Amino acid sequence: MSVRFKKTISVILACLTALPVMITAQMPAKVSAASDVTINLSAEKQIIRGFGGINHPAWIGDLTAAQRETAFGNGQNQLGFSILRIYVDPDRNNWYREVPTAKRAIEQGALVFASPWNPPSDMIETFNRNGDTNAKRLKYDKYAAYAQHLNDFVSYMKNNGVNLYAISVQNEPDYAHDWTWWTPQEMLRFMKENAGSINNTKVMAPESFQYLKNMSDPILNDPQALANMDILGAHTYGTQFSNFPYPLFEQKGTGKELWMTEVYYPNSNNNSADLWPEALDVSYHMHHAMVEADFQAYVWWYIRRQYGPMKEDGTISKRGYNMAHFSKFIRPGYVRVDATKNPDTNTYTSAYKGDNKVVIVAINRGTSSASQRFVLQNGNASTVSSWVTDVSRNLQAGSPINVSSGAFTATLPPQSVTTFVASLTGVSSVSNTDSTYEVETVTNQAAGN
User: Domain range for residue 364?
Assistant: First the structure.
């Protein structure tokens, strides 16, 4: 896999996002005041499908049985992942490799979706792309055969105990130096003329490497192509947070899902998974993916890697614990609700509800503790449980916090992520966890989103 450019743009963004922390590094640790975080439990946003990563036996070996439990179990020392991404090998003789981990993920309640890097070799031709005479593309007379190839994979997995939630048309069609290129018009043609023949699963497209809208705008603007797309998938390598919102999808994406299907952040440096406070950038990125992009799923690259949520020895990394602050508590079918997203310079918060609970994830990127007040609207609770990860703790449970008149105050340690969970009273439960993305009808408050 060619990752040099991805590494470069990720490092640049990591340096930019780290500047506020570097600038305040000399300040003494103290408790600082912040604006209230107001959580409107009636102002619903997107339904969350889940969090997870890819298992890629063909490239780095399968997860072991124990590692599958760590990834998809939701007990102590487990990540609670609820989405697994798998590889559609161009050679069907290798499809068996995907079955063991996918079956166990399904048994643990996870959704499984699949992405291809290349069609079968007999469907590919080379062409001259900007001087590269070995660039690959799908032959124009093989579009229907390729759709059948994807159908065959769906059927194979189903016959082996794995009902795929979705299948993608192509992994990163716009960053295909080592796999198959698709232009926006080629992708549009397939989505219009062939994607409708893919059966028994949802169809995902286009999985642009950098959430480049030129790959997906044509699909959204074409009624037939849009009808054949169930999930708009995107990768966010080097994507600026300012480019996370997608107004055209908000306008035309009613009934469709919006997933972030691959990233590593802030880099893929060797043995970086436990570096602190660098690992805190993972939850910071996830916050923006949920709040600014309205993604319904957040899927990491390799689940097990020296820069991933699970280290090569099968233990959870600091980056993994940051993901777990979301994945263990915000379960499939939960709904994000409006909350003050940035109550203080270095504090970032988001809130979710489901199973008659409210879940709040609060990130303090500053080097000082922050005293943060949370206010619940259109619902109440009596006590709040909390878990924190910082330089010395990994998802460590805290003491119960009392709620008074619909509000509670907590101290956010320096450079930390904290998840708060409370059982709700006086609020209606989420009734339709199978709904797809709906255009928001609630006017965003100035402090929310």
Answer: 31-48+334-449
Write out pLDDT tens, residues 164-178. Answer: 999 999 999 999 999
Rg (CA), the chain: 22
Catalytic option among 44, 98, 172, 257: 172
* Alpha-carbon span 87 to 301, nearest angstrom: 12
Say whether both 59 and 167 belong to one domain: yes
Residue 26 lies in a domain: no
Answer yes or no: is 4 within a domain: no
Residue 1 inside a domain? The answer is: no
pLDDT tens column, 79-127: 999 999 999 999 999 999 999 999 999 999 999 999 999 999 999 999 9
Q: What token pair was written down for 73?
A: 């179990």
AA identity, residue 179: W
Residues in the chain: 449
Point out the catalytic residue in the list 262, 278, 292, 440: 262
Same structural domain, 248 and 160: yes
What number is the average pLDDT over the span 23-45?
72
* Tens-place pLDDT, residues 196-244: 999 999 999 999 999 999 999 999 999 999 999 999 999 999 999 999 9
> What pTM value is reported for the model?
0.91
Q: Is 172 a catalytic residue?
A: yes
